[in-house]
Write the structure tokens for this entry.
Amino acid sequence: MKRGSTDLPRGHLRARLESRRSEIEEAALSRFHAVSAPPDDADPSYLAGIRTAISAAIDYAFDAIAQDRQEPPAPPPALLVQARLAARNGVTLETMLRRYVAGYTIFGTVLFEEAERSGVALSGEALEQFARLYTNYFDQLLAAVAKEHRRETENQAVSTERGSLGLVRRLLAGEVADPAPLAYALGDSHIGVVASGTAALDLLRDLSRCLDRRLLLVQLDEQTTWAWLGNRRMTDATDMEKITAWRLPAGLALAVGEPAEGLSGWRLTHRQAAAALPIAQRRSGSAIRYSNVALLASTMRDDLLATSLRQLYLAPLDADRDGGRVARETLQAYFQADRNASSAAAILRVGRNTVGARLRAIEARIGRPLRSCGPELEVALRLAESD
């Protein structure tokens, strides 16, 4: 193609951009956090949706490259959902739009870099036509997400102030407020629970009756319920065993914080349950207790740590002929057996020497002895299982 042509090779340009997709996503995620970090008490659904929304926005931008039509398609549903979640989590419209502008700038920079590298000089009529189309897509997207954010903000203003959710949010945020309308003693012992699923209300009421505890119940939305099980006496191990042994119906996830005392404990046990919810949503059958997944839960909320663990400990294993399958199975058995090679061999039904050889090969791959990085490697494996 001659430089300066108006016939833009859209498919070729999109393919070049696809090859840099990971780079674009990571740059957009970094700018997202640089504009404003998510609230510390943000709901897991909002945190989990950040990367999904960034990926959907990139797909939408790719469509602007590949399609030759002036009327943009409807924005991806994931972006509208994330706009509503942002409003529910106290993210202002200004902050949300600044993040979009930052992403728009990053994508535009990479786009014109690839146009130049491919020998396409976007100038004159071609540049004007393409810039108009790309901007039209972006304007449509901004208008849609802003509309969803405003609508949800208005809905929240009506519903939260009429019910207990607004009061609970203020108390969780450390504001001074009268808790009397909750009819729940914040000075007692608490077990925080966060549930996902439409059957949560009945199950939580059954739990409170079984444990003979007061129940503070707040519905965040149709799918998410916050609850606290309170009692004057200290929580014993039996109570926690009853909760985690409770069989859950299909479609319901239950995350449980650790027993805690008083107002500060009421806040802490809720934060623990909220952090464990994404793990509970990936598993089925029983409740997930925070203390059993604390490291994994914290890692999943820290994108830098999660990405780094994958790169340091799992990516090197992918170079094996089988993509690291045997190495991962061996490590999982090794950690399951409390790092005993003989017991791991029994689990895998291979010889002890085979396990030893595999572990030495793994150490060579990752460039460090297992004794120096066991906890990190184990968390990296559990992250992969949760993907």
Q: What stands out?
A: The domain at 171-291 is CATH 3.30.70.2730 (Alpha-Beta Plaits). The longest helix spans residues 124-162. Confidence is low (pLDDT under 50) at residues 1-7, 158-162. The beta strands are 189-196, 214-219, 224-231, 253-256, 260-261, 288-289.
